[in-house]
Design brief:
The chain has 497 residues and is α/β, with parallel strands linked by helices. The chain has helices spanning 10-16, 33-47, 60-74, 108-111, 129-138, 149-154, 184-189, 214-221, 225-232, 258-267, 307-318, 346-349, 369-380, 414-421, 447-458, 475-478, 486-496; strands spanning 22-27, 52-57, 80-84, 89-92, 97-102, 118-121, 172-176, 200-205, 251-252, 269-275, 282-290, 293-302, 325-328, 337-339, 342-344, 363-364, 399-402, 424-430, 433-440. Mean pLDDT is 87; it is low at 461-468, 473-477 and 480-497.
Length: 497
């Protein structure tokens, strides 16, 4: 069946011909993104028989009123065999299927049995990241779609799966309006994101005034400047809600940090900071105060694990390092439960001999939200008197994060993402201008971010810290969690002192 594919602008044409598995069409209102991705979804369904696709939006009301109407404009009526509006399933005459889904009716568990080839999520900025992750993992699970014989004859090297069956193309399509840099779509898709994922591409375009009513266009351009940037110009960027801005120079690649690692080991004041989670992940960050810098250089982030395992894992990652301090969420020192007739704390579980794993003694950290937030910003800001630890150039931040890579798997990942993600709570909006409170949005993940707050609570304004010389045979000296023979420890201590 021939489709009448036409493009109203260059943006639509470029989106249609993208070949990457994960594709995002972003930009202002009315730039044609939803229409062209519906065209693409229909083309795949009609080209490959028995092809399965999800067409989704966050709410049923919006799915029915907008995305479905666009799909039906593109999909030829004579290609439809059945359309069950109650179950939201469209079956085509070539046995291809569209599943219409409103995501607020589904959770991660209910999506795990889904077997599809592709998914198109409209207004994807509205969806939860957890739902996106599960849907993305279901792409390509359906292996009964068929490649036309004429394609196989024309392209004898057509890719096949492990069982020798020709593979159909599988895609995750997103259409979205811009949000801020802490949104998971920006993190995974935006070309300027430090966490840009392989095989992910984003095309962007502003509102196409030729596709809209002139009076409507004039009204759009007359709204609040931040609204215009986001919904008319289609610009991703720093939201007024964002609490911290991480300058790109604060993110260090470990391959550039060979000398810095040596300096941290020899001269840095090292700290471990813990945020324990019962039902949420437990995070531990390793930090160093060196010269005028504060450096996050190692990360532990583990959900659904007992304390004995956390103790062993943190011990193994610590090696023979000596720490100037070990700090943790002050809440773990509260006596919430009873054990053997007395009150017991989570902090006790990290040192007791009654469970396995090397003991890890912690001190309570300062949980002053607003003070630590400001101290982090002080150290993230560019300072004309500070030199960059790698380039040596002036006008550099004080706070650095050595990122996770394949070669350095214990580098900082969640610490970067969560630091960028923290935002203020939305109160209301006036003429498109968002009004925020000073309170932090509670729904944003903050497990590793809390370790960053606790660390900076220790260090005041973030000024230079003199190295601490730990006396030999002191409690701190013995508490180094060393795996070395005592003689080797003594030799190492002599070299350092």
């Amino acid at each position: 069946m021939n489709l009448d594919i036409r493009f109203r602008n260059e943006f639509q044409e470029n989106c249609f011909w993208l070949k990457e598995r994960n594709q995002c069409a972003s930009g202002g209102f009315n730039n044609g993104k939803s229409y062209v991705l519906c065209q693409k979804a229909v083309t795949l369904a009609l080209t490959f028989s028995n092809y399965r696709s999800v067409i989704a939006r966050q709410t049923f009301k919006d799915l029915k009123a907008t995305t479905l109407q666009t799909l039906l404009k593109v999909l030829p009526k004579d290609a439809i065999r059945t359309f069950d509006t109650q179950s939201g399933v469209i079956v085509l005459k070539n046995n291809s299927v569209f599943y219409l889904m409103h995501l607020d009716a589904f959770d991660e568990q209910s999506l795990r049995g889904l077997e599809i080839n592709s998914a198109f999520i409209d207004q994807a900025e509205e969806m939860m990241e957890a739902i996106y992750i599960v849907l993305d993992a279901r792409i390509g699970r359906w292996d009964k779609a068929e490649v036309p014989s004429e394609y196989l004859e024309k392209f004898p090297e057509w890719p096949k799966n492990d069982w020798g069956i020709p593979r159909v193309p599988n895609y995750m399509f997103l259409a979205c309006n811009p949000d801020s840099q802490f949104h998971f779509i920006y993190q995974n898709y935006h070309p300027e994101s430090v966490n840009l994922q392989p095989g992910h591409v984003m095309l962007q375009a502003p509102t196409d005034e030729a596709l809209g009513d002139p009076e409507t266009m004039a009204r759009m351009k007359g709204r609040d400047e931040s609204w215009v940037r986001k919904y008319f110009k289609g610009e991703w960027g720093i939201s007024e809600a964002q609490i911290h801005y991480v300058h790109p120079s604060s993110i260090l690649d470990p391959k550039d940090c060979v000398q810095l690692f040596k300096d941290i080991d020899r001269r840095g004041n090292k700290y471990r900071v813990l945020d324990h989670g019962e039902t949420s992940p437990t995070a531990c960050g390793w930090y160093a105060a060196l010269n005028s810098w504060h450096i996050a250089y190692r990360e532990y982030y583990m959900p659904n694990t007992v304390i004995s395992k956390h103790r062993q894992n943190i011990y193994d990652l610590s090696g023979d390092e000596i720490y100037a301090g070990n700090y943790a969420d002050p809440d773990i020192f509260n006596k919430h439960s009873q054990k053997e007739g007395g009150f017991w704390t989570v902090a006790n579980e990290y040192v007791t001999k009654s469970i396995e794993g090397p003991p890890l003694p912690w001190s309570p950290a300062d949980n002053n939200e607003f003070a630590t937030r400001n101290r982090i910003n002080e150290c993230l800001s560019l300072n004309p008197n500070v030199r960059h630890p790698i380039t040596g150039e002036l006008n550099a931040p004080r706070f650095y994060l050595i990122k996770r890579t394949r070669e350095y798997p214990n580098g900082i990942y969640h610490g970067i993402s969560e630091l960028q993600s923290q935002r203020r709570k939305l109160l209301t909006s006036i003429n498109g201008k968002a009004i925020y409170s000073d309170d932090r949005e509670e729904s944003i993940t903050d497990h590793f971010y809390d370790t960053e707050r606790y660390y900076f609570a220790i260090h005041g304004s973030g000024k230079s810290v003199e190295p601490i010389h730990i006396p030999r045979k002191s409690m701190a000296w013995y508490n180094r969690l060393s795996k070395k023979h005592v003689g080797e420890v003594l030799a190492a201590s002599d070299e350092r002192n």
